[in-house]
Amino acid sequence: MADEPLVLGIETSCDETGVGIVRGHTLLADALASSVDQHARFGGVVPEVASRAHLEAIVPTMQRALAEAQVTLADIDAIAVTSGPGLAGALLVGVAAAKGYALAAEKPIYGVNHLAAHVAVDTLEHGPLPEPAVAMLVSGGHSSLLLVDDLTNGVTPLGATIDDAAGEAFDKVARLLGLGFPGGPVIDRTAKEGDRRSIAFPRGLTAPKDLAAHRFDFSFSGLKTAVARWVEARERDGEPVPIADVSASFQEAVCDVLTAKAIDACRSQGVRTLLIGGGVAANSRLRVLAGERAAKHGIEVRVPRPQLCTDNGAMVAALGSRLVAAGVAPSRLDLPADSAMPLTAVSVAG
Ligand code: KG4
Ligand code: ZN
Questions:
Q1: Which residues 6+ apart lie within 8 Å of 180 measured at CB?
Q2: How many Cα atoms within 13 Å fall on the side-chain side of residue 34?
Q3: Whose CA is nearest to atom 18 of ligand 1?
Q4: Which residues does the record give as Fe cation binding sites (predicted)?
Q5: What is the pLDDT of residues 83-109, one digit of tens each?
Q6: Among 289, 310, 341, 343, which residue has the most ligand 1 atoms within 8 Å of its CB, making it the best to mutate?
């Protein structure tokens, strides 16, 4: 079992209830229940609604995962669970469930960091990650550039958003364009019909004076405001709003900044592998642009398939599997749900 542990992972940090099972780097099951439809009319995730949905979904999702992997809880070597960061009430459901299963089946438990899990999931598709690597995590709640020397030991933050997360910008712009929630997938689709060069939206924190203090940081709130002002001006003039062109130009502004800073981070660190994870990594334009720009500098880009980019239980199991294989001590049974878990903690120390 030592280097091919059978690990079950539970994810409940936001609006997806996920239970995944892996053996070593092999994915055996990835059961998911989403409450996204219940949040759509509010234009964003409502924490209380998410917590309630996790409570209803956790046991059936667990049962589906075990059936899919054709294993029983007794076969599992360890249980991993997202301890943070995320919505406090939502995290609590997963952490409480994981403790219950760990106690009942007498299994070790690992409380893990959601962001590190977004990095670890790629091993399920592309095998061990060449380290050091630079990881760019872009999702609804975070946008960060990290140096990964040894994922089981911690990550070094290089930069992060100073205001909105990249996914949050997609969600807010989709809302103001009347495209619904979540915004990322629908803008991605709509942008395919538009011209990404039609509107020159601002690229946050890329001017020389900003780069001095914020070389690897992001800012998307000015971009969101610029899109809002542009749309308002058209409406004021009684002109139709070219939704596809606005979507494509907005998406280009986000992807341009993300990829430019990610490649710059790799070059500054002398790193030849760029890993992209989190929900926004599902974006088709981001994947293409990152690949094109990285190739020019001999950098390899690794992006998991879209289904593994958004939140799921397999990513938590993947990180748990690495921790077990590396001989990291499990967490204690009284491990907390930590909504503000720092990036530097990959798992809750035992
Ligand atoms: O990682 P994730 O599932 O949850 C968080 O941890 O936040 O990311 C969700 C975010 C949402 O903001 C969603 O709009 C965005 O990822 N997203 C996308 C795409 N698919 C999901 N953004 C851009 N393009 C996509 N195709
Ligand atoms: Zn996430």
A1: 40, 174, 186
A2: 11
A3: 184
A4: 114, 118, 311
A5: 999 999 999 999 999 999 999 999 999
A6: 310
